[in-house]
Design a protein that fits this description.
Elements (H helix, E strand, L loop, with lengths): L13 H21 L17 H24 L1 H9 L16 E9 L2 E7 L4 E9 H17 L8 H19 L4 H4 L4 E5 L24 E4 L4 H8 L7 E5 L7 H14 L2 E4 L5 H10 L2 E5 L2 E2 L9 E4 L2 E4 H5 L7 E5 L6 E3 L5 E3 H8 L3 E5 L5 H16 L4 H13 L7 H7 L2 H4 L2 E5 L7
Parallel strand pairs: 1-4, 4-5, 6-7, 6-8, 8-12, 12-15
Antiparallel strand pairs: 1-2, 2-3, 9-10, 10-11, 13-14, 15-16
Helix pairs in contact: 1-2, 4-5, 8-12, 12-13
Length: 439
């Protein structure tokens, strides 16, 4: 765990922490006053507010909070050095953390061109790829348009939409992975370390022309290669499962069913609706090895420190999560866009992913885009059934996604055709340690 929380580490920090506490309370009051009668998904921090004076007040408070947090981080020289270290290219070998079946693929952008480093347990090679980041962004933009259409399309329209999605995913495969196809054939387990815009690409859903990559390989992701050591070296002592489900006033009806099913599978603690609070998550995080949260989430592109997940007593933001003390082997955020981050200098990511990893999570199950309530619940139930049977985290996710691709759990042909589109099964990906659950 890296301490980048809002607690005072020295006496000189106390005035900063006191001001931060006041500002955060002020921000919460602003939202409560402005959103007293609005639906949680329409709050002003997710969309431009009509009230410019209100927006100005919020932006002023958030800017000051961000400045104070960075000042506090810089004062903690050791934590700041560790923080920067995890996002830099390192010369120390990563081979000790790889086995003979695993291939680590780390991408770098050099003057808009892509270079791919391929690391095994014995070798490291480099390959220049035949594509620019501008071209990747164009492919991804077309994919996003396709994904946005899926939840609104009819059963008759979805098969054609799936074909078009696969064509785009095949173009991405041809440019990002086909140049090292001979290595892919020899290594069934892949670790993907993206760079730049590639952090938003679902590598597991890339299409060879015959099948999706997830059908032949397990995949796990890392925000940087150095995170492999960070996620592997730390032993987790947390025991049991805590599951949180909030329907957000009935707008997410399957969130409660999802939480209840998963809690039964692991005989875990179950928290629903008004029990889903910051205090309960903080307490469970210190004790439990698995945390599962099914609710609504919001990504704040302008202020990623204030991206968050919706609880009964407010939002648990990136800033709050940095202050958690987790002992979790796996944290699952079953909600919209929980894996989205803002790219900073040196390819640093700021968002929920970074916060949970720094707070002590060994691995995260996150989403790249907005997700549907029902399909998400079905996917998560399949993942946890495999975990309960002893599967590794990467194998459990792969098995669940393959069930959607091949319609293995759906009796209704229309539903099977619908959920075969990547929009429904591909948003979720595993970050960090991909092995079996500890304890």
């Amino acid at each position: 765990r890296l301490d980048v929380s809002l607690e005072a580490a020295a006496d000189e920090d106390r005035p900063l922490v006191a001001e931060l506490t006041t500002l955060r309370a002020q921000r919460e009051q602003l939202f409560q006053r402005h959103n007293a009668d609005s639906d949680v998904r329409e709050r002003a921090w997710m969309a431009p507010a009509a009230d410019q004076e209100y927006r100005g007040q919020v932006e002023e408070v958030e800017t000051r909070i961000r400045q104070l947090w960075h000042t506090l981080l810089v004062r903690r020289a050791e934590a700041y050095t560790q923080d920067a270290d995890l996002w830099q290219v390192r010369t120390e070998p990563i081979q000790p953390y790889l086995d003979g079946e695993t291939l680590l693929l780390e991408y770098f952008v050099v003057h808009d061109r892509l270079v791919l480093f391929c690391a095994t347990d014995t070798t490291v090679t480099a390959r220049r790829l035949p594509v620019t980041m501008a071209q990747v962004a164009q492919f991804h933009s077309r994919l996003r348009r396709n994904l946005r259409l899926a939840p609104r399309s009819s059963a008759a329209q979805l098969p054609d939409l799936t074909v078009r999605a696969n064509q785009i995913l095949a173009q991405l495969y041809d440019n990002l992975l086909a140049p090292v196809a001979e290595m892919l054939a020899r290594f069934p387990k892949l670790i993907i370390v993206p760079h730049g815009h590639l952090h938003y690409v679902p590598f597991h859903a890339l299409h060879t022309g015959e099948r999706y990559l997830i059908e032949s390989h397990t995949l796990q992701y890392l925000p940087s290669a150095s995170m492999l050591r960070h996620c592997t070296d730390v032993s987790r002592r947390g025991q049991g499962l805590a599951v949180f489900g909030h329907t957000q006033g009935g707008t997410l009806p399957f969130a409660a069913h999802e939480a209840q099913t998963i809690a039964r599978l692991f005989q875990g603690r179950l928290y629903l609706e008004e029990e889903v609070t910051r205090g309960q998550i903080q307490a469970a995080g210190r004790e439990c090895g698995l945390l599962h949260v099914a609710t609504h989430a919001a990504f704040n592109n302008d202020e990623p420190l204030f991206a968050g997940i919706a609880l009964d007593d407010g939002w648990l933001t990136t800033l709050d999560i940095f202050g958690l003390k987790l002992d979790a082997d796996l944290v699952t955020l079953s909600a919209c866009q929980t894996g989205r981050s803002v790219l900073g200098g040196g390819d640093e990511l700021l968002g929920l992913m970074r916060a949970f990893l720094y707070a002590g999570a060994a691995s995260l199950l996150l989403s790249l885009w907005p997700v549907e309530d029902r399909s998400t619940a079905l996917l998560m139930e399949a993942v946890y059934r495999s975990l309960a049977d002893g599967a590794s985290k990467v194998d459990a996710l792969r098995a669940a996604q393959r069930q959607f691709i091949h319609s293995a759990q759906f009796d209704d042909p229309a539903q099977a055709a619908r959920f075969a589109h990547p929009y429904f099964w591909a948003p979720f990906y595993l970050v960090g340690h991909g092995g079996a659950l500890q304890g």
